[in-house]
Amino acid sequence: MAAGATASPAAVAAGDPAGVAQPTPTVTPFYWDEACRHLAKRDRVMKKLIPKFGEARLQSRGDAFTTLARSIVGQQISVKAAQSVWDRFVAVVGGPATHLSPACVLAREVPELRAAGLSVRKAEYLGDLARHFESGAVHVGQWQQMDDEAIIDELVAIRGIGRWTAEMFLIFHLMRPNVLPLDDLGLIKGISQGYFSGEPVSRAEAREVGDAWAPYRSVATWYIWRSLDPLPVDY
User: Fold this and answer.
1) Is the domain of 37 the same as that of 107?
2) Last residue of a domain, one of 131, 154, 172
3) Using CB atoms within 10 A of its CB, is residue 57 exposed (0-12), middle (13-18) or buried (19+)?
4) What angle is formed at CA 221 by the lines to CA 220 and CA 224, rounded to 5 degrees?
5) Does 95 lie in the same domain as 167?
6) The pLDDT value given to residue 11
7) What is the domain range of residue 94?
8) 141 and 69, same structural domain?
9) What does the mean pLDDT of the chain come to?
C-alpha cells in the first residue's frame, strides 16, 4: 500500500477541514529475529533463503477491515493482478487505501465495484464484509485474546471468507507466528521448488515440511513467498 499522509475517518468525522492524519505506522513482529535464528538452525532451505532478503519483514498497518478486504480481492489471482484490482477498487470506493471505511464500501452498488475489475461474487463478498463491520457483528476488540482457530471460526462465518482468507488475516493483521496456510497455492509451489526439486507436492507432504517450522510457521511461509516473488505481499 502507498505510504504518505491520508485523511483518516476519525479526522473527517470530527470535522477537521484538512482531514489529514499522520501516515499509518507499520508494525513488525517482535519475534521476527528470534524466528529467523530458529529456522536457520533447523532448516537447510531457510538457512539459505533468509539472508537473501536482509532486513525485510512482515508488516501490518493495523486496520482489520482493510486487511480482510485486500484478502478477498486477492483470492485466486496473482499478487500483481490483485494489486491492480485493489488500486482500482480503492479509487472507486474513495478514502485512504490504508484504512478503508465499511460505510464507503456500502455506499457503492455492485456494478460500481465491478468496474474496478471485481467479479460479481467478490463485489458481493466485500459488501457483506462491510455490513458485518458496520453492524458490529464481528468482535474486533476480542481478537487479540482469541486463539487462532477461534478467530478462524468467527471469520469463516462471514460470506466469502474461507479458511485461506482467515489465515491471511492471522498472518498479516494479527501477525500470529505459527500459521501454516496449506490452501495457499504459492506456499505449495514454493515448498515444491525448495524441498522437492519442483516435483508435485501433496498436502500431507507440505504439512510435514511446515510442521518442522513450528513455532514460526508464519515466518517460514513469508520467506517461501519471497522465494517466488521478491516483492513482499502487503495486506
Assistant:
1) no
2) 172
3) middle
4) 90
5) yes
6) 28
7) 64-172
8) yes
9) 85
Per-residue pLDDT at 25: 57
Prediction pTM value = 0.76
124 and 209 part of one domain = no
Digit-coded pLDDT (tens) for 59-111? 886 689 998 998 899 888 888 899 999 999 999 998 788 889 999 999 999 99
Q: What is the 3-state secondary structure (H, E, C) of the chain?
A: CCCCCECCHHHHHCCCCCCCECCCCCECCCCHHHHHHHHHHHCHHHHHHHHHHCCCCCCECCCHHHHHHHHHHCCCCCHHHHHHHHHHHHHHHCCCCCCCCHHHHHCCCHHHHHCCCCCHHHHHHHHHHHHHHHHCCCCHHHHHHCCHHHHHHHHCCCCCCCHHHHHHHHHHCCCCCCCCCCCCHHHHHHHHHHHCCCCCCCHHHHHHHHHCCCCCHHHHHHHHHHHHCCCCCCC
Residue-wise pLDDT tens digits, 49-65: 999 998 888 888 668 99
Whether 57 is covered by a domain: the verdict is: no
